[in-house]
Amino acid sequence: KHFALWSFAWTRLPRVLCAVRSRGLSSYRRRSMPCPVDPPSPSSPLPRLLGARRLPPAAAPELKQGDPAPPAPWSAPQASVSPERWCVTRQDLKDLRQQVRRAVQEGRIAPTPFDNFDPKDEKVGPSFYTVVEHIIKPATAEASVSWALLQHPEGVDCDLFVTHAWAEGIYEFIDKVLASWPFMDRVVPSWPFLDKVLPYMDKVLPSRPFRRRGAWICTLSMPQNSDIAALICAPASSPFAEGLRAASEVLVVPNRRVKVYTRLWCVYEAHLAKKVGKRIVTAVRSHLGGAARAVATAALFCPIGVFLGKVSSLQGDWKDEHSSSWRANDVFSMTVWLLMAVSLIVKHSCLRMAVNFLGVLVASFCVAMDDWHKLHDIPYFLIAEVDRERLLAYDEEAANLDFKGSVRDATCSVATDAITIWNEIGGQISRVDNAIDILVRAKKCSPLLSGLADRGVDVTDAGFTEWAFLTWVAARCVVHLCMDIQISNIALWYVDTATNAILTLWVVSMLFFGVDRRAFCMRGFQKAMSLYFVSHAMLKIVAVCVGKHDFKGVLHNVGHVWRLAIFAPIFVVCLIHPWQTASIPGIGPRLVEAILFRIRQRPHKVN
Questions:
Q1: Which residues sit opposite 263 in a β-bridge?
Q2: CB 436 within 8 A of CB 261
Q3: Using alpha carbons only, what angle is made at residue 188 by residues 222 and 526, rounded to the nearest 5 degrees?
């Protein structure tokens, strides 16, 4: 009760005094009448959280003829643009970061007991509370619009809705949002010619990878000098909700200061995203520095492997197919395949790094021994190091996002907002908890992943896409075209042609799949290649150890057929929607888990 009275006095009393002094008490009653809300359900955690009495629903005020209309919650320039277009671009965030950095250097933004940031720190910076008070509000006071409309008066199409807690540092927030911005908008330059061509390409590709994107961020999109309470009194029809419904995905920005989903407004945004079927993605820090160091370290093993291969070629008869040196070369060649299989199915970071380094070394050794077929294996191990660094970044943000308990423990600073939000969520608290749990485990939350989890599938890391295998396929095609490999057996030529056709269709089909189905399809072919690598390598090592050259030739022919026999059913399973695959009685969920399976460092405990 004391908390409710203190909240009322802090938020309402100054406006009451100003309204009574300037316009009279009746004007204030018309302006600040609370939004009509129903009392929370008996199962709502609101009474326990607030300790306050439930507010009865209030009727909307009736204006008599001749009374002036109540003032609008935002200015005319802000109201002239639809709320879903109150967005900022990637360049706007870069400019804001420079403004804040300049203000900190000039002393206009200084540490306070409330926000005791380090002025010399370039990674975290002042919180959004400080930035709004010192940068956003002074810049938008004269125009009476939001910071987003100050940059783009006509607005920007909304494609990204950003959920965040105000307590995080501005540098940390902007760096994560920029690093998690849709990929094509980061790499495609903004040229006038491309701006005319790319919309036509977006109509052809359903995933729309080339669309110019705008981000809806509450601190920058909302007019901070207006009556925010009047804007958000009805969450379902607030600018938050309109921006989220217009966005294609929701980006959650974790931070190291506070858990995002301990804030009630963030919980409501997760509930609304789950309700309207939006994909929720976790924002991560930039991993380019770590990836560059990992690739450079792995590349150092290339000259070492080439040197060892050249030295070994001078000490043995590697050209004789019946010599022990030739057999050792075959063993090294099959070892590369085994290392690729281990790298595909293991998540343990240190073990995977050692496997990738060893794979580069052995593949370089085989190339030095004139086994040019292993040339396309080296790019795989290098890009696998990039994927490993990306996965580490996602795991770090998942740890910052995860919290013990339930969203029913989330809090809100304004009592009336908490009542309205819990009234909107109702009995869907468990669904929001499940969505956040899927977001933490799978790195994404979408209708596809939620449906798989509801069918009993373990979706750990299911939303994470690895690009090493796709790089291997592209490098394999280039190497085989340059080497002009001839196959004398016409039957094997047909088998190899069918295999290459399946790989081509697989790559093309991923362009028309959504992000989640694309990750599922890529993971399926990774498992197919792992199975082929392990089985064929073990049989070939046995053939080399036996030493029968005829048996080795037969096994080489069988390998072509075995590869097609593995690829064809996996390709069919990947073309079928994962929901339909998981709905197969008995084996469906286990089949999907087999495709998504990866040996983890430690099991994840589901809440």
A1: 411
A2: yes
A3: 100
| 433 within 8 A of 420, measured Cβ to Cβ | no
Please check the confidence at residue 477 and state whether its pLDDT lies above 80.
no
| C-alpha to C-alpha distance for 51 and 43, rounded to whole angstroms | 14
Q: How far apart are CA 416 and CA 421, in angstroms?
A: 9
Kindly state the helix (H) or strand (E) to which residue 555 belongs, with its residue range.
helix 549-575
The DSSP line for 424-476 is HHTT-HHHHHHHHHHHHHHSEE-HHHHHHHHTT---TTTT----HHHHHHHHH
Hunting for tokens 């799978």 — which residue is that? 442
Answer whether residue 314 shows pLDDT above 80. Answer: no
Only one residue has tokens 């969520």, namely 425
Tally of CB atoms within 10 A around 57: 11
Given the structure tokens 């998504």, which residue do they identify? 596
How confident is residue 71, by pLDDT bands cut at 50, 70 and 90?
A: very low
Question: Rounded to the nearest 5 degrees, what angle is found at the Cα of 388, between the Cα atoms of 387 and 394?
Answer: 90
What phi and psi values does residue 300 have, to the nearest 5 degrees?
-65, -25
d(CA 262, CA 133): 23
For residues 162 and 251, is the Cβ–Cβ distance under 8 A? Answer: yes
CB 93 within 8 A of CB 227: no
Residue type, 536: H
Non-local (6+) Cβ contacts of 52 within 8 A are 1, 3, 4, 415
Alpha helices, DSSP H only, in 216-300? 218-221, 228-231, 239-246, 264-276, 288-299
CA distances from 140 to 126, 151, 219, 255, 566 (A): 19, 10, 12, 27, 62
Structure tokens at 108: 């206009």
Of 101-105, 239-243, 346-350, 544-548, the range with the lowest mean pLDDT is 544-548
User: What pLDDT score was predicted for residue 132?
Assistant: 92
Q: Cα 532 to chain center, whole Å? A: 30
- Alpha helix segments (H runs only) across 24-179: 25-31, 46-50, 76-79, 90-106, 128-131, 137-140, 147-151, 170-179
How far are the Cα atoms of 11, 12, 13, 296, 456 from residue 17, in angstroms, in the given order?
Answer: 12, 9, 6, 66, 58
Share the mean pLDDT of the chain: 76
- How many angstroms from the chain centroid is the CA of residue 283? 6
Per-residue b or e along 476-514, where b marks 16 or more CB atoms closer than 10 Å to that residue's CB: beebeeeeeeeeeeeeeeebbeebeebbeebbeebeebe
How would you label 176-215 residue by residue, b for 16+ Cβ within 10 Å and e otherwise? bbeebbbebbeeeeeeeeeeeebeeeeeeeebbbbbbbbb
Assess contact for 213 and 251: CB atoms under 8 A. Answer: no
**100 closest CA partner among 70, 124, 131:** 131
User: How big, in percent rounded to 5, are the helix, strand and coil portions of the chain?
Assistant: 65, 5, 30
